[in-house]
C-alpha cells in the first residue's frame, strides 16, 4: 500500500491477498477462532491486523480490511472500527482522562459528544471548558495544569468552524496533552489531522464512509501504541466492536467514497451559491464558499469539503422555517447525512459567541441532480411566501 494514492487504497487497501482468488473478501461471520498450536492461541490475544485471530469482540478479518484502508488514508499506524461513531469518540475520550482531569472542547462540537462530556463524564469528576476555537490562543488560555485532553471538531457541527490543527497539535504535544478530533465532516480524503500532530482521529462511518444510509459504524485512527492499548482496554472492555457484516458493507461503500464526495461537494457549492442569491436568506455557512471566513486556514489544512451546509433564513418565525422544510419533496426531514439522499432539517443554533439563538436550516446534498435540488428548494421558498 506504500505510496498508493487514496483512490487506489480505497480499492485494494487491506485486500492484497485474495482468498481463493475472490476479488471481494468473504464475510467472516464467526465469533471465535480456533488454533492448532498453543503458541498461535496465545498470540491471538494481541488482536493484531492479519491475525492470528481470537474473538470478534477484539478483531476479525473483515474489520482488518477496513482498518487497514482507514489507517492508510489517515496516514496513521493503526485504525480500529467501532459499532458507531459515538463508540469511537467516547472510547477515545475515555482513553485520555481520569478522575480530576480537565478537558477543553470546542463549543460547536457534535451535540451527543458535548452531552457525553458535560452530562456523563462530569459524574466521574472530569470537568469540561468550552471554547469558540477559531483562535488557538483562546484554546491555550483555557488549559489548566490538570488539562489532559483537547476535543476538536474541524469543520465543526452546524457552523463549520475550523480550528488551527498544526498550532493546537504543536502546543498539546509540548504540554503532554492528548488531542482528539472528530474528522467526520472533512473525511479522510480531504483532511488528515494526524499529519498536523493530532493524536486521535475519529470518524463516524454512518455518514460518508458508509455512504448509503444503511449502516451505523465508527472509526478511530492513531499510533500503534495508542490503538494497541485501546484494544486491551476501552475497545474490548466496553464491547465497542463493529460486526463483520457491517464492516463488509463499509468496505463495499468505501470503494466509491472519493466519487461520492466529489459529487455531493459540487452540489453543495451550487446550492450555497443559489441560497446566497435568494432575498430570503440572511447567511450561508459552507466551507466551500470562495470567501469563507477561514479560507486561508481551510486551504492550509483541507484538500476539499463535502455536501453539508447551513443557512439562516431572514424569516425567523419557527412556523415558517418548518413550513419551508415540510414543503420540500426531494429533501427528507431527518437526522444524519452522508448518504445517497438529500436531507433538510430546521434547527435552532446558539453558539457561545452569539447573543441569542437563531433559526437555521441544515442541508445535506445527496447524489441527486443539483438542478432538481435547486428546484425543490425554490418550491420551499414559494411555500413560505404563501
Ligand atoms: C453522526 C455524527 C456522530 C455520531 O455518529 P454515530 O455513528 O451516529 O454514533 C459524531 N460526530 C458527527 C460529526 C456526526 O455527524
Overview of this protein structure:
It is a single chain. The protein has 386 residues and is of the alpha/beta class. It folds into two domains: 6-254, Aspartate Aminotransferase, domain 2, CATH 3.40.640; 257-385, Alpha-Beta Complex (Aspartate Aminotransferase, domain 1). The chain contains 15 helices and eleven strands. It has a seven-stranded mixed sheet with strand order 1-7-6-5-4-2-3, with helices on both faces. Strands 8-9-11-10 form a four-stranded antiparallel sheet, with helices on one face. Helix 3 packs parallel to helix 11 and helix 14 crosses helix 15. It is globular and about 75 Å long. The chain starts with 5 loop residues before the first helix and ends with a helix. 47% of the residues are buried. Residues 84-86, 110, 157, 182, 184, 204, 206-207, 216, 218 line the site of pyridoxal-5'-phosphate.
Summarize the structure.
This protein has 386 residues and is α/β, with parallel strands linked by helices. Helices cover 38% and strands 16% of the residues.
Indicate the CATH class of the largest domain: Alpha Beta
| Share of residues in helices | 25-40%
End-to-end gap? 58 Å
Biggest sheet details: 7 strands, mixed
Q: So what's the overall shape?
A: globular
Q: Can you count the beta strands? A: 11
Tally of distinct domains: 2
- Fourth-level CATH superfamily of the largest domain: Type I PLP-dependent aspartate aminotransferase-like (Major domain)
Instruction: Please trace the helix and strand order, writing H or E for each element.
Output: HHHEHEHEHEHEHEEHHHHEHEHEEH
Strand content: 15-25%
CATH-defined fold name of the largest domain: Aspartate Aminotransferase, domain 2
Number of helical elements: 15
Poorly predicted runs of 5 or more residues: none
Query: On the 0-100 scale, what is the average pLDDT?
Result: 96
Based on secondary structure, the structural category is alpha/beta
| Multimerization state | single chain
Determine Rg (CA atoms, Å).
21 Å
What is the CATH architecture assignment of the largest domain? 3-Layer(aba) Sandwich
Strand order of the largest sheet: 1-7-6-5-4-2-3
Bound molecules: pyridoxal-5'-phosphate
Amino acid at each position: 500500500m506504500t505510496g498508493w494514492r487514496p483512490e487506489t487504497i480505497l480499492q485494494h487497501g487491506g485486500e492484497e491477498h485474495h482468498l481463493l482468488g475472490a476479488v471481494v473478501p468473504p464475510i467472516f461471520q464467526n465469533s471465535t477462532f480456533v488454533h492448532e498450536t498453543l503458541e498461535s492461541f496465545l498470540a491471538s490475544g494481541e488482536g493484531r491486523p492479519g491475525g492470528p485471530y481470537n474473538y470478534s469482540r477484539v478483531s476479525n478479518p473483515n474489520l482488518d480490511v477496513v482498518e487497514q484502508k482507514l489507517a492508510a488514508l489517515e496516514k496513521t499506524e493503526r485504525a480500529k472500527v467501532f459499532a458507531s461513531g459515538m463508540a469511537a469518540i467516547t472510547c477515545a475520550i475515555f482513553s485520555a482522562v481520569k478522575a480530576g482531569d480537565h478537558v477543553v472542547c470546542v463549543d460547536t462540537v457534535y451535540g451527543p459528544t458535548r452531552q457525553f462530556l458535560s452530562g456523563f463524564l462530569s459524574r466521574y469528576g472530569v470537568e469540561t471548558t468550552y471554547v469558540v476555537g477559531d483562535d488557538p490562543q483562546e484554546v491555550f488560555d483555557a488549559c489548566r495544569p490538570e488539562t489532559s485532553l483537547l476535543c476538536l471538531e474541524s469543520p465543526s457541527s452546524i457552523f463549520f468552524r475550523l480550528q488551527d490543527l498544526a498550532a493546537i497539535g504543536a502546543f498539546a504535544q509540548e504540554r503532554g496533552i492528548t488531542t482528539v478530533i472528530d474528522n467526520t465532516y472533512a473525511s479522510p480524503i480531504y483532511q488528515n489531522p494526524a499529519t498536523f500532530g493530532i493524536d486521535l482521529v475519529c470518524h463516524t462511518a454512518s455518514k460518508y464512509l458508509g455512504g448509503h444510509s444503511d449502516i451505523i459504524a465508527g472509526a478511530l485512527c492513531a499510533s500503534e501504541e495508542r490503538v494497541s492499548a485501546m484494544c486491551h482496554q476501552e475497545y474490548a472492555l466496553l464491547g465497542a466492536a463493529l460486526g463483520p457484516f457491517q464492516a463488509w458493507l463499509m468496505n463495499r461503500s468505501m470503494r466509491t467514497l472519493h466519487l461520492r464526495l466529489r459529487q455531493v461537494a459540487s452540489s453543495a457549492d451550487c446550492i450555497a451559491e443559489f441560497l446566497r442569491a435568494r432575498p430570503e436568506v440572511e447567511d450561508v455557512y459552507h466551507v466551500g464558499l470562495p470567501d469563507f471566513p477561514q479560507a486561508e486556514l481551510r486551504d492550509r489544512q483541507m484538500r476539499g469539503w463535502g455536501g453539508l451546509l447551513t443557512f439562516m433564513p431572514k424569516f425567523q418565525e419557527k412556523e415558517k422555517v418548518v413550513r419551508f422544510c415540510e414543503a420540500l419533496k426531494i429533501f427528507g426531514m431527518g437526522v444524519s447525512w452522508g448518504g445517497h439522499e438529500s436531507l433538510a432539517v430546521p434547527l435552532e443554533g446558539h453558539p457561545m459567541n452569539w447573543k441569542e439563538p437563531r433559526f437555521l436550516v441544515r442541508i445535506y446534498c445527496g447524489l441527486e441532480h443539483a438542478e432538481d435540488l435547486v428546484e425543490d428548494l425554490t418550491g420551499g421558498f414559494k411555500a413560505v411566501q404563501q
